Input
Amino acid sequence: MTRKLLHATPAERAEHRQNIAERKALEERENDTIVRHALEQVSRLAEQDFDVVVIPSGYADTSILPDERIQKYAEHLRKVTSEAHGSSDESRARTHRKMRQLVEKNEAQFAAEPDLRDISNRMCGMCGGGCCADGGNAAYITSATIKREKKRQPGLSDEDLVQAYLSRLSSQTITNACINQTTTGCALPTEMRSDTCNGFHCDTLNAWHDRPREERANTVFAIQRSGTYSERNDLTRSRQIVKVALVKAEALVPLTVKNARGQHQ
Output
């Protein structure tokens, strides 16, 4: 919720919700239109069974990682490493358990359905880190992440562990996003990432995961819109369709679709 909405009146909040609902309805009509145009223009697409999933977009601009960000990241790492020696309050512990359960749920589902993992990974790659944008200089790393890493690498001292994270930083980073986000993905190996990073999927991808297996197609018609995941309800941000693709376990195939005005998507 934005600072403006925090201080909004009930009437203003109701108006905001109505505006969001109207924009979502408009986007759904646009999604239907682009699918219809694709069916008309893409050879043999009509013969395929597919599900439509809308995904956000990560930031694309890169910049040299400044020392100030590295320093703030190091301070955060030392803070959570120190906290890892103590007990978390119940609210924080409950959040950590919830994220760990989400990771385990995803892993169990992906183990049972390997193609689901591959398709999801391809869509996340197409998105380019739309959910990583808010990682900032903390990279979603918490005391729970550090506790888990200490169990995995018990021989490391606190400072060794901090340096292990710092050593994986790239000299180039995605501007205004997570400090570990690069043009090729996360600078951290999977096992060092937070449970948030390893367990989170955007709501549209989660909804597709949650569909009964027999009702879920093996191909996704992915519609990528501009704006990060956290910007999805920000009415000041553009939510234009920027890319469409057919996504299967074995490949992601970008589609070029003309709209009614002859413009390409």
In short: The two ends are 31 Å apart (CA to CA).
